[in-house]
Amino acid sequence: MDDLPPLREVIAAHDLAPKKAMGQNFLLDLNLTARIARQAGSLADHDVLEIGPGPGGLTRGLLAEGARRVVAVEKDSRCLPALAQIAERYPGRLDVLNADALDLDTARHLSAPVRVAANLPYNVGTELLVRWLTPAAWPPFWDSLTLMFQKEVAQRIVATPGSKAYGRLAILAQWRTQARIVMELPPQAFTPPPKVHSAVVHLTALPAPRFPADPKTLEKVVAKAFNQRRKMLRAALRGLRPDIEDRLIAAGIAPTERAEQVDVERFCALARALDT
Ligand code: SAM
Question: Is 175 exposed, middle or buried (0-12, 13-18, 19+ CB in 10 A)?
């Protein structure tokens, strides 16, 4: 792929023993990281935001696949020398920011069009995904997100109404993007292997949300509705408004329905009914 050393050597040379506290499960097979990079779509005309490059397996995949420029945000400063070697191999195409991605305004480091690619610890990935899906204005700063998750989380993102996995992530993702699982990976693909299987989800930003709704209201009502997913909505949403039953009916939802029966369109109608 490139003339840089294999990742096992990089890890040994820079003393990058994976740290559990940083959620470090590294991908060391460069054929695999190139395959993940290809799932992101055309890269030659895009800046790519990579969160959590670690020793740089996916970073090398993205650059070898022709990314115009990669901006990589890594919290663990131990990884910086290994990433600096990659930057030297691809002059002017890799910028590394040593920061916590949750604290950084990444958009201002990038030029449009932008794609996002990441293999992140589970809780950071979910938190960032929700932030990327819920900006006040749409379209967002990115065209697509290509993200590794625990398989169970990936299934929650693409779940349909009526299924157990259907909830907040499905609604927020499917409201404003086209989301699909594009790859599944067994634990042995990682070093050290995690306990669970993983999957890559590719989300493409729609030019406009499928249905009008205020993102804050939608997020709030969906969170509350699924917090007590087995309850009827009139009970789960009690306290949100005194006339919650009327607002449910105005949105075409029977007050006796449960959250998992309500599709994205009707949740958006409910968010609008709450805002009137
Ligand atoms: N991308 C590499 C790969 O695929 O081999 C590393 C993946 S490892 C699962 C997650 C990476 O995210 C680690 O390098 C870790 O240090 C980094 N990381 C964890 N939390 C982070 C955060 N809040 N901001 C930025 N990087 C983070």
Answer: buried
Ligand 1 centroid to residue 184 C-alpha, Å: 19
Residue of the CA atom closest to atom 12 of ligand 1: 52
As annotated, the residues of the chain forming the CATH 1.10.8.100 domain(s) are 215-275
Does the model's pTM come out above 0.90?
A: yes
pLDDT at 259 over 90: yes
Residues shown for the chain: 276
Residue 53 alpha carbon to ligand 1 centre in Å: 6
Homologous superfamily (CATH) for 7-205: Vaccinia Virus protein VP39 (3.40.50.150)
Which one, of 159, 148, 140, 152, lies nearest residue 209 by Cα?
140
Asked: is 215-275 a CATH 1.10.8.100 domain? The reply is yes
Ligand 1 mutation pick, 80, 109, 119, max ligand atoms within 8 A of CB: 119
